Amino acid sequence: MTTQPKAGTGPWSIPPLFAQLVDDTGLLAPREASPVETVVARYLAARDGVYGGLVGQLVCPVSRLPVLVKELARSSVSRPVELSLVVDTGLGSVPKALSTVFSRPALLAPRTIETAAPTDVDAVWLDRVAEFVPEDVVAVVEPRRPVHDDPDGTQAWLDAVRRVADQGCAPKLRCGGPRPTDAPSTEDVERFLRVVADSGRGFTTLGLYEAVRVDSPDQPVARRHGLVNLLVAVARALSGGDVAAALRSTDGDALAAEVGSWSDRAVAGVRGLFSRCGADPAPGVALSGLGLLTR
């Protein structure tokens, strides 16, 4: 998906359903494939571009934070970048990273801290995470999902998701990535959505590369789940509808029509549960092509 507008066009109006929904996860890619200067330039251009209202946080591993700070200082940003810090060097590195962020308020505004968790995560472990997260920053926790068909492992994962939500953290669902195993099955996505809908706790995602699901031999399995599918699935999970059918649909027009029929209350309910998604890059052109964004 691309964020490049047609020449001569003005900014698009981003409705509340999509406002600041899509985070840039480019810095999570291997370093040789995602130079910090390239990701920062793209993020700032998208944030200030015609689909700027769609752009959310810049996701950055703790290990790349020093280089990011230098690049933002060099870029002379017009306003602070909303930042999601991903813990990749242990929880003990978080205080120093936060100190770095808070000491540069003209460059960075911390919004979330994300970390992976074992499936046997318990309240003690989650309390330790909370110790490192300031009150006005959201703690996001991704329990590890089994990579093979394992009913017991899947149930343990779902139990961990519920514990994360019950502890006041935002569960995270990995929907795709560089490996086929990064993409959960439709059944696992549905199970996850039903758990978070029951808990009422907002969640985040990573690895949504398409606006609408693509089922094609040419499309890698780990890139097939669609953003609009997930939004519709969340709405159906909240209302008792057919979640699996929403996730499997490849009919973008039908999905868009369903989204267009939602009341303001329904939109607020969906975004109250589905707070953010990680995509690279943001899907402005695809969403406008479906009629979901207007001028």
Question: Can you walk through the features of this model?
Answer:
- With 295 residues, this protein is α/β, with parallel strands linked by helices.
- The chain has a single domain (22-288), classed as TIM Barrel, CATH 3.20.20.
- 39% of the residues lie in helices and 16% in strands.
- The protein is built from eleven helices and eight strands.
- It has helices spanning 36-47, 65-75, 94-102, 123-132, 151-166, 186-199, 227-239, 243-248, 252-260, 264-273, 284-289; strands at residues 22-24, 55-61, 81-86, 108-117, 138-143, 170-174, 203-206, 274-279.
- An eight-stranded parallel β-barrel has the order 1-2-3-4-5-6-7-8, surrounded by seven helices.
Spell out the blueprint of helices and strands.
Blueprint: E1 22-24, H1 36-47, E2 55-61, H2 65-75, E3 81-86, H3 94-102, E4 108-117, H4 123-132, E5 138-143, H5 151-166, E6 170-174, H6 186-199, E7 203-206, H7 227-239, H8 243-248, H9 252-260, H10 264-273, E8 274-279, H11 284-289
Characterize the main sheet.
8 strands, parallel, barrel
Number of helices: 11
The topology string of helices and strands comes to EHEHEHEHEHEHEHHHHEH
Strands in their spatial order, largest beta sheet: 1-2-3-4-5-6-7-8
Low-confidence stretches: 1-8
CATH top-level class: Alpha Beta
Distance between the termini: 20 Å
Note the overall shape. globular
Portion in strands:
15-25%
CATH architecture: Alpha-Beta Barrel
CATH topology: TIM Barrel
Total discrete domains:
1
**Rounded Rg:** 18 Å
Q: What is the residue-averaged pLDDT? A: 92
Number of strands: 8
